[in-house]
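discrete fold record:
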Amino acid sequence: LVTYHLALLGMLGWASSFYEPNGASATPPQQFDAPIANAEVRWFMQSRTDLEQSSATPGLSSVALGYSRSFQNSYLGTFYQRDRGYLQFSAFLLGTLASGLEFGVSRVAFPDSDVQESFKQLRLDGRAFAEYRFTETLAANLTLQYDQVNSPLVNAEHLDYSRWQAYVGVRWFM
């Protein structure tokens, strides 16, 4: 926490992969060797002067703007690099309703491999969450998620898709 309203997060690191060639491949696999990072600015809407300045209690209503850079293993080649920006809103209302909205835009880059040349994708994602707390120990929640991938043709295949997901759950606090 920088102030009672403003929190900053910054993490910087370096990631390297160590993929081994398989026996059938003539070319060695691409390796990831680059910086990774997370950065976030969060604004807490409800000022609480009784908080310690070095901590924030969960459940406070807030708005956040962030960026994340990472890499993941992939079926298309060895890995992909993901750069994602996001906007997030979370609220805790009347002591019983927790909710959240998040929207993200990602640029995903796949390197050259034995099976395809390098290519990039644009990915959009969104999430809405709501939880109603019946008592201090029992709550019901609902999550809706949307994913969309916009991709060029890769090996004459269309990789574009959009997907909706919904989850309903019950949570018991112990």
